[in-house]
Amino acid sequence: GLPIAKEIVEMLFNDGLVKVLFATEAFAMGVNMPTKTAVFCGLKKSDGKDFRYLLSSEYTQMSGRAGRRGLDAKGNVIIFLTDIEQLPHIEDLNKMMNKSGENLESKFKLTYPIILTLLNNENFKIMDLIKKSFSENSRHSSMNWFKEKVKQLKRHMKDNPINCKYPNTETPPIEDFFNASNKLRREQTNFLNEMDIITRLKFPKLVILLGKNNVLDLGLCLRYAYYKDSRNPIDLRVFVMSSSRDRGKISIEFESASQNVTAGNDRQTGTFWRFLDVRPAEVFGFLDTKVDRLRVKTVTLALNQEKEAAPELISALQSHRERFLADPKKFEAQLIALDNDRDYYYNTELAIMEERNKVIESLCRGCDLQAQHTEKHLKVLDMRRDLEEVDKRMKSENQAILDELAARTNVLKSFKYIDDEEVPLLKAKIARETGSLLISELIVENLLDNLTVAEIAALFSMFVCQFNSRDENFREEEFSD
Known about the structure:
alpha+beta, 481 residues, 17 helices, elongated
């Protein structure tokens, strides 16, 4: 028979008596038969649904046959394609040859017949099967790594404390400051992205900006732009500048890197300036303060020729900014309430005001350790997320199987396959024999009594037919009819 013939060919090949062997993937992948040269006549294979390129692990395993230990200094791998159209793109070829092997994943599934069979077995329980599954074995083999990772993360958190100079606080003030700033950003995004709100502003307006590491600075907002189909429909064009206390550079940076930037410096004053687009999340609030020495002509010029308008904008913004940096709290009373009518957006603006107050009143505002503690707090947040992820991975696979078991057990109880004590009933025997709850229900509910033999055969064929929807003669509309 065929097995004997295959064994003879393998023996002849192993003894070097077969010079050229045309083999299937099964031979190339599963048998230790080294050769001097491996030739691929194609790089695609069927996965049951479509044709795909070989996975990296498949290509490595098959091409690894080339090179006989003790006989060849190196092996040869030839990709022999007769049609130029079969040649893969360089990215696909690189992925196939150089990508690391795919991770093994458990395919273990708890089916109803398995559960019913094991419930009927006194010597081998369901939990015994789960413990022997690949996923559970993999989880246990990784447990030491998980535990070591948890220890390492906790040690890092302990070794990097935030030593605040205000020791009477239960938690470091930077944590509350950071949380308030983040909530303010979310609320401002929802609020200012509404056209009904942004159109209530008359530009130009002085604006307090909330930059990276929650740095506050004063700028001048010149206009807004609206992008209808964007996730972030509102952009605000602002002018920011440096001063003598900034040591020649602009002190505020933003999380969202603007691509549309005009920058320069005024040689007479040594002031650096920048026009850029910011998002609503980077707006702390608008001020109801008149900008001195700012002519309409300058504003119009700034909308079209920003560089030419910069010197006068510096002159107009400078005094306001110096006063703001000296005492930001004084400017709180000048923040504009955009929803004075107390309509749909009133509660949102109240939430914004509450978070603004937390930021302004925070002990971290103006503290010389703010930037350092913010950086440490971000690292702590990363470590907390890593801890959560490790904890989740330690529990997830086993928990998923247990959840699936509980859900399927409840189904079996509700359809009377097992009783409340999980003892199999009569219907369970039928389901075990047929391998399907659906077939069992058809039989037990006598739904086949009025069907002919041919109709029953047609009905049951759907449980065994391997239908190929890619058949060129298949038309879905006819099938659905």
